Amino acid sequence: MENPWLKINHSDYENHMIEVGQSQILNSLKKYCLDKYQPKNFALLGCATGNGLEHVKSNVTNKVYAIDINQEYLNKTQEKFENQIINLELLKRDIQNEELAIKNIDLFFVGLVLEYVDPKKTLNKIIETIGKNGILFIVIQKNKQTTFVSKTKYKSLETLSDISNDVNENEIDSFICLKNMELIKKEEIELTKSKSFITLEYRKKE
Q1: pLDDT of 98-150, one tens digit each?
Q2: Where does the record place the Methyltransferase type domain (predicted)?
């Protein structure tokens, strides 16, 4: 079966995320991470069309890896940011089946990706790329008696329900802490009465 992410138009995705208020929160979380950690090497998995990359400071961050399975999204990211981000590298990757082939990442941001993949298999690949004292920042969606994908007029996103799964943040935390990573901060951000974001912030031990 072809991955549904390959069939969703970038404008449908962007507008859906704005309508449900998730795009704005993810944007602010990326700004928080970039401002706090000032990474030399930054990786963004599931970059879509580059939401949040406007907060990259090229005089601080030497390399940005924007990673996604959908080439159309990557093309849009390049169009928007190639003149702003000096060393922007676009990587088309199916994280389930391909290696990332990058290393020494100072900040790795994973927002709403683990719900669509094998979380532990994917996290193994991500953690391998993180350098000494590097940061892993994860955003997980938590649902309370509701559908995973919020209903909007952008019907193409409803196909994601076929591959989405709830992710247990406690299981994820236990797994990551076995990988020489320490939890710095955990937070829950309420979106609606039935949905919230869980953020998990880790540092790689020396």
Answers
A1: 999 999 999 999 999 998 899 999 999 999 999 999 999 999 998 876 554 55
A2: 45-138
Give the whole-angstrom CA distance, residue 22 versus residue 27. Answer: 9
Q: Positive or negative, the Cα torsion across 92, 121, 160, 108?
A: negative
Three-class secondary structure of residue 42 per DSSP? strand
Residue 50 CA to residue 25 CA, distance in Å, equals 14
**In which order are the strands placed within the sheet that holds 195-204?**
88-92, 63-68, 41-45, 105-111, 130-143, 195-204, 181-190
Q: Where are the domains of the chain?
A: 4-49+59-93+100-204
pTM confidence score: 0.91
Between CA 63 and CA 86 the distance in angstroms is 8
Residues 77 and 66 sit within 8 Å (Cβ to Cβ) = yes
Which stretches does DSSP call E strand in 40-177?
A: 41-45, 63-68, 88-92, 105-111, 130-143
Six token digits for residue 123: 């996290």
With H, G, I as helix, E, B as strand and everything else as coil, classify residue 150.
coil
CB of 47 closer than 8 Å to CB of 73: yes
Which element (helix H / strand E) includes 61?
none
